[in-house]
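Example record used in the benchmark description.
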Amino acid sequence: MWFVYILKSKNYKKSYVGFTNNIERRLREHNEGKNYYTKRFKPWILLKIEEYKQQTEARKREKYYKSGIGREKLKEIFKHCGMV
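Model output (structure tokens):
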């Protein structure tokens, strides 16, 4: 299985969208500072996970969230979670 995940920084108004086949490992890597972008804004909390059977499906969804219309969708997700 492949996962698209949405992270939100606990201390900054920053978010991150990615995809992986191991969500626990990937979240740990972000919080340990092993990613150039996310190490500056740690710690991170996991807001949402979407599950996909194929890597190509997960990658397509990640690209959607990183697009202009996808960013608008993220704002709705953050508002729903009380993070805006």
